[in-house]
Amino acid sequence: MSQLTHRTVAVNGIEMHVAERGEGRPVVLCHGFPGLWFTWRHQIEALASAGYRVIAPDMRGYGGTSAPADASEYDRPHTVGDMVGLLDALDVEQAVFAGHDFGAHLVWDLPAWAPGRVSALMQLSVPRTPRLPVQPSVGFKYLASQHFAHVHYFQEPGVADPELGEHPREFLAKIFHALSGANRYLDCWDFPSEGNGYLDVLPQPPALPWNWLSEDEFDYYAAEFTRTGFTGGLNWYRAEDAVWVQNEALHDRPIELPVTFIAGAKDPVLEMMGREPFAAMRKLVPGLVSTHVIDGAGHFVQMEKPAEVNAAMLEFLAGLPA
Known about the structure:
This protein is α/β, with parallel strands linked by helices. The chain has one domain: Rossmann fold (3-Layer(aba) Sandwich), CATH 3.40.50. Helices cover 40% and strands 16% of the residues. It has helices at 41-49, 76-89, 102-113, 136-146, 150-153, 160-165, 168-178, 198-201, 215-228, 231-238, 240-246, 268-272, 279-284, 301-304, 306-318, and strands at 5-11, 14-21, 25-30, 52-57, 95-100, 118-124, 259-264, 288-294. Strands 1-2-4-3-5-6-7-8 form an eight-stranded mixed sheet, sandwiched between helices. Strand 1 (5-11) and strand 2 form a beta hairpin. It starts with a strand and ends with a helix.
């Protein structure tokens, strides 16, 4: 089996860093915030060993990939164009796509935006939900009137960027811990928006290593974000209004492709969605084959419980038509 390789390819007007391993059916892994190709390190090895060609890019704005300064360049034409351009650059006609966090937001949209280029979806942590009745920034502003809301705090350029960028190790340790199964992230809502930054409301993490994150693994994240800052990732949040407008006629189009959904039982995304977090998804995703809620895991389920996530992915992939 081939070893992990890294290369940079010209994609959709940017340079995209890609980690690859294996041969066979292509599987593209799309990370979210604050992630990197490295977020999928456990899945890359497992899927490649099982006979799949695993393609894990640093998404637009992250790591070794270009990071346009203007948030308008993180809308759906740009981010979908990245994925289509990546397939073209790698001479891949069709792939299975997996997404986590903002990567999942994008991957949910791919069947409507790029029909014919996607054969199946493996989605982590972010269920498919109906279209919001108001533009996202309006909802974010309302949340911020009730309590601290990072989605609103991230909207204004030049606010979160220096706070997080000047303290990358502190922020990464805090956010990884806060969103993990070892913490209840929604406790951040106990703080008001006024007078608080994100570092003020996130809990103090325990010392590394943790049972799912080693010091060396954390150091890789810290080195990358120390080099790049966080503006590229924050721009995905700032493009949400544009994405909402661009998806008006497409968002609720049913997804007929085979789909599996995987989440941690302690993921705050599920907690915010109430008792039946999957009810709407079942209606919007008639192709849903399976759901897996993994005990003890939070938002970063693929890192916190890699064996369980890998098993769910491999079971799903094995059941796909040849």
